Amino acid sequence: MKFFKLFLVVLILGVAFSGVAVADNYSKAISVFKQSEAVQPFFKNCYGYAVFPTIGKGGIGIGGAFGEGKVYQGGKVTGTTSLVKLSIGFQLGGQAYSQMIFFQDKRSYGEFTSGNFEFDASASAVAITAGVQAKAGTEGVTGGASAGPSTGEQAKTSYKKGMVVFVHAKGGLMYEASIGGQKFSFKPN
Q1: Among 19, 27, 29, 68, which residue is least crowded by beta carbons within 10 Å?
Q2: DSSP letter string over 95-134?
Q3: Is the pTM of this model over 0.85?
Q4: Within 13 A of 136's CA, how many CA atoms are on the CB side?
C-alpha cells in the first residue's frame, strides 16, 4: 500500500509539473488565448496582461501550484512574475495549464505589479477549450458549449476588481478548480 501511495504521488506531480522545467514559449501561449472568441476583446481593450505558459498543480489532500510568467504593458514585457499556491482540503490529481490575467486599467496593473499580490476568495477563472467554456469560483459554477462562434452562446465574463483570468488546460486531471489563494510576485525588467 505504501508503494502505491508513493507511486501515485510521483505520477501526479510528474504530470502536474511536466512542462515547468522546459523553457516555455510565451508567444505560443498568447496565440492559444487569442484564438478564443471570449478572450479576443480583452486583448483589444486591456491596459496590460500577465501570461503563464505552464502552471503545474498537484495534490492529495495537501496541494500546490507553481508557474513563472511575464507581464506585458503596451505590447512590451515590463517584468517577470511567479505564481505560488498552497492548499489544504479535498483535492486529488495533477494538472498542467496556461493562465492569462488581463488588467483593465493602470490601477489594476499597478496593484498586480506592486510586488506581492494575492487573489481573494471571490476570484474565479474562465476556462477556454475548443468549443467548451466554464466558470468556477466561490460564487458558483456556470458553463456553456459551442460548436462554433455562429452556432452557439459563448460563456460571458467581465472584469472583476479590474482583472479577469482565463485558463487553458494542457493536461492532467484534478478535482479542485479554485484560483483564490494564488500568490504572485513581480520583478520589473
Answers
A1: 27
A2: EEEEEEEEE-SHHHHHHHTTSEEE--TT-EEEEE-SSEEE
A3: no
A4: 11
Looking up cell 468549443 gives: 131
> Measuring CA to CA, how many Å separate 177 from each of 74, 107, 131?
31, 27, 19
Which residues are bridge partners to 76 per DSSP? 73
pLDDT per residue as tens digits for the range 54-106: 999 998 888 899 999 999 999 899 999 999 998 887 788 899 999 999 999 99
Please state, in angstroms and rounded to a whole number, the distance separating the CA atoms of residues 105 and 99: 19
Compute the C-alpha angle 55/57/60, nearest 5°: 175
> Any residues with CB less than 8 A from the CB of 130 and at least 6 apart, and which?
none
The three grid cell numbers given for residue 29, joined into one nine-digit string? 501561449
Instruction: Answer whether 126's CB lies under 8 Å from 36's CB.
Output: no
Report the DSSP beta bridge partners of residue 71: 50, 79
The burial class, CB within 10 Å (0-12 / 13-18 / 19+), for 130 is: exposed
115's grid cell: 510586488
Sign of CA dihedral 52, 54, 124, 129: positive
